[in-house]
Specification:
The protein is α/β, with parallel strands linked by helices. Helices cover 33% and strands 32% of the residues.
Length: 208
């Protein structure tokens, strides 16, 4: 269920992202690049199937037109999830995009929902994006919201995860595969990942 995407290109880029000196522009670029690289792993089990149509090559030959065997819906958890969804869409430009809005109550550390909009497609595969899997609360609530709207084939894409959050998501949604670039040590006493990379949303949007 938990997939750690072990790739040296991702490891080096993530290392740059952890550096407190990395500015927002470079942070966003690195996150785009890592998300694109991780997309290859997340969907490597999909199949390219014929659509029933043909395409003509410059040599005059005809070959089958192909499509993925699922219709992908990319759903970033606002606001930081947008930073990951861009990289995924770079690899899947025909994917549909939904949005889930929630924020973490700083006192209770629990997520609060304020927006949910999901596209309707046949045979959907939903990829939920959020850079940090810390307490697991946002991911659990996001997946729950998506399931309540009738979607059952769901995967979760994170940049960095904490063992506590991963465990909670696994317990709450054992049918959802989790893909992360790094499993860090633990959470601190205010619910942030250690060593982590700080608040991903603030670093993406420059709101430190």
């Amino acid at each position: 269920m938990l997939h750690i995407v072990d790739n040296p290109l991702i490891a080096v880029k993530l290392n740059y992202m952890r550096d407190e000196k990395t500015n927002s522009k470079d942070f966003r670029t690195l996150l785009d690049e890592i998300s694109s690289l991780m997309t290859l792993e997340v969907f490597k089990d999909l199949k390219a199937v014929p659509t029933g149509e043909k395409i003509k090559t410059p040599t005059g030959s005809e070959v089958d037109k192909l499509k993925l065997n699922y219709n992908i819906i990319v759903v970033p958890i606002l606001r930081a999830g947008i930073g990951m969804s861009n990289g995924v869409i770079n690899m899947l430009p025909t994917a549909k995009i939904g949005h889930i809005g929630m924020y973490r109550d700083e006192k209770t550390l629990t997520p609060v929902e304020y927006f949910c909009k999901l596209p309707k497609v046949e045979n959907p595969l939903v990829l939920v994006c959020d850079p940090m899997l810390a307490t697991g609360g946002s991911a659990i609530d996001a997946v729950t919201m998506i399931k309540k709207r009738g979607y059952t084939n769901i995967r979760l894409l994170n940049l960095v995860g904490a063992p506590e959050g991963v465990k909670k998501v696994e317990e709450a949604h054992p049918d959802v595969d989790i893909y992360i670039a790094a499993l860090d040590e633990r959470l601190n006493d205010v619910g942030y990942i250690l060593p982590g990379l700080g608040d991903a949303g603030d670093r993406i949007f420059g709101t430190l």
